[in-house]
Design a protein that fits this description.
heterodimer; A: alpha+beta; five-stranded antiparallel beta sheet; 52% helix; 17% strand; B: 4 helices; 0% strand
């Protein structure tokens, strides 16, 4: 309002008093100079202010000049963006966890399957085995050592926790003893799984030595029976027993695993 | 002539010194600048009409700036600072346009 008046006044008033006001004869040179200096100073300040304001605008971040509704919209955008990124992060974390646990599970399953395959291989006689155990030699006396004696010995050893066994004769090599192994008398020797072994026989067995030795030595047991026919049973305990002869794995013809 | 030189000198000074506007003054400076520009164009028009009065120019310049600043301040206090600032800028803009139109008519007779 007031600003309006001043300029209007200037514009409206001046044309009439033009001649009188122009030179302003009543005013001194010094006062005119002062006025000029003031004008110059004001304009200098104006120029400074313009540049300062423009600079401030330019250096300002965009947000400072933004209106309130714009700021609200920007804030909303950022919020929804953050929400989106957060859910994306959660999904990625989830899949990462799944992948790592999956890899771990796969590894564990593989290790378990491997150790199970080892166990089953030893049990089925398809893998060589080594460990603490006994070597038991059956020497015949007046009568040959019968297949049933050897079978008794094998059963006793199994009962005592034997994990792998093989039997060797003076002739015929060694045969791995597994669940299906059979023993048949054949004169002075025996036939084990179709292999003819000559006396004396040596059974190599892996298991707890003390338990197996006790099982063989019980009264009326294997050692007793062999001695009754004047034979001898020599039980040695080497530091490490090796059961190296293998048996071909047979795949089941009829049986299928239940799964 | 001196006025134009002073204006340029102020601008150069601002470019060289790169002053930062104090936070308390930030809402008022743009309006004050526009008001000062209004006074400047009014003075220019008066000069071309040969009715320029230095005293009046100084007073109108200062009062324009002060009143514009005061209106914005008042608007801020009342909670309508933005709207009031817009109104002041519109009014001053209209006046600057009319002053510039007068100056243009003086130069081009059109």
């Amino acid at each position: 309002m007031m600003a309006d008046e001043t300029t209007e006044e200037k514009l409206a008033e001046k044309p009439e008093a033009k001649a009188a006001e122009r030179r302003q004869p009543g005013r001194t040179v010094a006062s005119r100079r002062l006025a000029l200096t003031l004008i110059a100073g004001l304009l200098a300040v104006l120029g400074l202010a313009i540049v300062a304001q423009v600079n401030t605008r330019n250096t300002d971040e965009d947000l400072q000049g933004a209106r309130q509704e714009d700021l609200v919209r920007i804030l909303g955008d950022l919020d929804s963006r953050q929400e989106r990124l957060r859910s994306e992060l959660a999904a990625l974390e989830d899949s990462k966890r799944q992948l790592t646990s999956g890899a771990q599970g796969k590894e564990a399953a593989l290790a378990a399957a491997r150790s199970r395959a080892d166990e089953l291989g030893i049990l089925a006689g398809t893998l060589p085995a080594t460990g603490t155990g006994l070597e038991i030699e059956f020497r015949a006396g007046t009568q040959p050592v019968t297949a049933s004696t050897v079978l008794d010995a094998v059963e006793e050893l199994r009962g005592a926790g034997a994990e792998a066994m093989q039997i060797g004769g003076a002739t015929g090599g060694t045969v791995r003893i597994v669940a299906q192994t059979y023993f048949v008398d054949d004169g002075a020797g025996i036939i084990v799984d179709g292999v003819k072994l000559g006396a004396p026989f040596t059974v190599s067995v892996i298991g707890d030595p003390q338990t197996m030795r006790a099982a063989l030595n019980i009264p009326g047991g294997v050692v007793d029976m062999v001695r009754r026919v004047d034979g001898t049973v020599v039980i040695r305990q080497p530091g490490e027993v090796r059961v190296t002869s293998l048996r071909q794995a047979v795949s089941a013809k009829y049986a299928r695993p239940v799964s | 002539m001196i006025a134009v030189l002073a204006l340029l000198a102020g601008m150069v000074l601002g470019l060289v010194l790169e002053p930062t506007v104090p936070v308390g003054l930030q809402p008022y400076l743009p309006i004050a600048v526009v008001a000062a520009l209004d006074a400047l164009f009014g003075g220019l028009r008066a000069k071309l009409n040969k009715v320029f009065d230095d005293r009046q120019f100084i007073i109108s310049f200062v009062s324009n700036v002060l009143v514009a600043g005061f209106i914005v301040f008042l608007g801020d206090q009342l909670g309508v600072g933005g709207q009031l600032a817009t109104g002041v800028v519109v009014v001053l803009g209209v006046r600057i346009f009319s002053n510039v139109a007068a100056i243009r008519r003086h130069f081009f007779k059109a």
